[in-house]
Write a structure and sequence with these properties.
By secondary structure, the protein is an alpha/beta fold. Helices cover 53% and strands 13% of the residues. The protein has six helices and five strands, in the order H-E-H-E-H-E-H-E-H-E-H.
């Protein structure tokens, strides 16, 4: 319950203040303007799914969930998804396999891989499969909010760039 007497918390305020500044900077850019679809959270651990679902819903996002990579593939085929947050280590189809399968199917939205592992080889394999970024466990809420928002911004800028190129080519 709270902090114990004698424990300094002076380091917490500068970090929170910096996070507030980062979020304010992101908001000033005006991105993302609208969500292209819900965020799909994929994890075989029910607690992690619930944690991410509640956190993302608290940030104002619509959230879908899947308990496996195979279930995620089925959902992406039936619902337009704006972003995928997938666990790396899952039975059946892991996060890297899911990422590769999504990209092979033409899925263009963002994919973030959530992992407790920090292996450079796994990170490299994830990027090669088409991952847009990684989120390390244990997931901090403020970091999750920033990473998701930045990825959504990036995706929106990519779409805007495609639209502008298309308009320019028509002239």
């Amino acid at each position: 319950m709270g902090f114990q007497a004698g424990v300094s918390t002076s380091h917490i305020m500068p970090v929170r203040s910096r996070m507030s500044q980062l979020l304010a900077g992101i908001e000033q850019c005006g991105y993302p303007k609208k969500m292209p679809g819900p965020i799909l959270v994929v994890d075989d651990e029910p607690f992690q799914v619930l944690f991410m679902q509640k956190a993302l819903a608290g940030f104002g996002y619509d959230v879908l969930t899947a308990a496996s990579g195979r279930e995620a593939l089925e959902k992406v085929r039936s619902v337009p998804v704006g972003l995928v947050l997938t666990d790396l280590s899952m039975p059946d189809l892991d996060g890297i396999g899911l990422t590769g399968a999504l990209r092979a199917s033409g899925f263009c939205a963002g994919i973030l891989v959530v992992t407790a592992l920090k292996s450079q080889n796994q990170i490299s394999e994830g990027y090669k499969a088409g991952a847009d970024g990684f989120v390390l466990k244990p997931v901090a809420l403020d970091v999750l909010e920033i990473v998701v928002r930045r990825e959504l911004q990036r995706q929106e800028l990519i779409e805007e760039n495609k639209r502008l190129k298309s308009e320019r080519e028509k002239k």
